[in-house]
């Protein structure tokens, strides 16, 4: 599977005020099994790009194809989302939440619950399958959201700041766990993040986006086999990459903003 | 995460138990005191009959064909009022729910009428429908209509955009959007709409019958109270009160159960 | 802006529909003027009533009954809510009792109130006060029992005395909840006082409406409905304006 993004531009038409061009002329290729992280200042169009990849938004110009076939709308078996605010259905039990997409696809109850249970096991939550989301911590809810996406067996997972709402510690712990799960499942993943550590630790490639309007300003390759161990964060190559990213994002903002 | 609540469970249960004991004791105590005060003549029995007399009057009433007929007439007016008020309310609420423009134009005026004493429109109903059961039913429908509209709209307001987005992202078709997101999210409002629909259909019919009616419970109460048959008035009133309180308590329980998934624990708050 | 205009156009359309139906009903081929009076006649009556001192004194009576009923309901409701909300046990005992009281169809008791208090102002005040009491007591109890323990901890840690905790911590913490009960209670006081006047009384706006309608002074009845709507709008405005909380505590 290969996703091709060819000079994609998206302009939001607004009821009040001028239209906003969120992303312009994005070119990108995501290959099978690859883990790509997207990082950049707030409002630079990361979510917009991700939503275009998932068919939730239609580009104003340019096109996105998967194995040559154009994307026309959301299709969870091709691209499944993990949203920042989890957005589990509070009125459904954990296992039914994980089975949501399968239910929409018309899979029979017993079967979809079996699949969902397997994914819950994978993210280590099979013991709370019958609980309701409100009874779970934020980290657990986010793992359910990951299970919900995995249950679709998607060709590509689209994660929008998946751990943004968690505290630093759970974020790292769950991050490592999920990173292992996704690597073992050989998933293709595009993940938006605000954390430099996360962006590097998880990814094969880090794409840095810039503002006004959003586009990709730099690309880094993280040359270390996945899954990685925690001590990867203490290596020199990690440090160098991190310093470079930091400089790009925080140190010299004009470089990011200027065209 | 569940541990602490399990640990605290035992004393809390004990407290609930002794609280309900004390509550029963209070209720029984009040009834006993009431009986005694009437018996020793501190309270005039013409104004407030003793509980034992009220119970006897209740038994009398239940066997009295005239009273049965009055209950039947009132009951059918309430049912008619509920059906008319709820269906009209649902229809209007769905129209307002579908269009933001309509909602902004008419929800305000509807909320205003909701907060007025609707009894001031009673003369119009009597003029148009006369004194029969239809008049009471129409007024009951009028009362309940506004509650149904406001509650259903309130329910639709609970539908969250992000859940609709998830539904779209996971391939929901239109029927799924309604069955899996809109309906469950709006259910508390819809449930409340039915409850307030029946409650106000009932109250509206009662008010209309007390105001002017040629039959039903209202005139029955008026006749008995004019004749100073306080025990019969109290019997009717308490009979209906018991039904209303039991229905209300059951509804609260059902509502709490239904909202099990809500994180706020469905904090019931008094509303009109 | 365009949106606002459309909203008002729709509202005006609705009014035109309402008055159109009225005009049609009173026009040739419509219903008898005994049932539905002509708009112009109602308007004449309205002007007559608004300039009559009798109408104003009736409105005054209704207002006094309403205020008295509300004052009693407010004080009794908040005090009961506060006392019963002081310990979890008391709250547990009292809450269902108050909730049941709130479920009682009080309308049915009105004939008894006439029996007990007569047809004068007292019965309206007592009746209005009772119906306003329950929502105020219920929400106050909820508010006081659900006070966030953190506030009380702060109060203890900074050496607040018992009454300081009551007045400076518990009251403000419970206030949003109490106020929401007060708004409902006030609205209920108004609804019941007017209804009570209509059902049996000798004075007040509700009584005037009942009298006009029962003596088939149809135009006057319609004009009185209009006057009552204005009265209600003013009371509603006062409730919403003065009863607004300025903060939330999410008890
Ligand atoms: N629905 C929308 N309507 C109009 N403008 C939008 C909408 N969504 C996002 N934008 C604008 O598009 C730009 C990019 O937004 P977004 O993709 O959410 O950025 P990011 O996820 O990188 O923070 C921002 O300037 C934002 O204000
Ligand atoms: Mg974003």
UniProtKB/TrEMBL annotation, chain A:
Signal peptide: none annotated. Keywords: ATP-binding, Nucleotide-binding, Transport. InterPro entries: AAA+_ATPase (IPR003593), ABC_transporter-like_ATP-bd (IPR003439), ABC_transporter-like_CS (IPR017871), ABC_transporter_ATP-bind (IPR050166), P-loop_NTPase (IPR027417). Gene3D superfamilies: P-loop containing nucleotide triphosphate hydrolases. Transmembrane segments: none annotated. It comes from the Bacteria. The keyword Metal-binding does not apply. Residues 3-236 form the ABC transporter domain. Pfam families: ABC_tran (PF00005). SMART domains: AAA. One of its GO terms (molecular function) is ATP binding. This is NitT/TauT family transport system ATP-binding protein. It comes from Nocardioides soli.
Automatic annotation (TrEMBL), chain C:
It is found in: Cell membrane. Belongs to the binding-protein-dependent transport system permease family. The keyword Kinase does not apply. The chain crosses the membrane at residues 12-36, 56-85, 97-119, 125-144, 173-196, 216-239. GO terms for biological process: transmembrane transport. It is a multi-pass membrane protein. Keywords: Cell membrane, Membrane, Transmembrane, Transmembrane helix, Transport. Gene3D superfamilies: MetI-like. One of its GO terms (cellular component) is plasma membrane. Signal peptide: none annotated. Its main location: membrane. This is ABC-type nitrate/sulfonate/bicarbonate transport system permease component. It comes from the Bacteria.
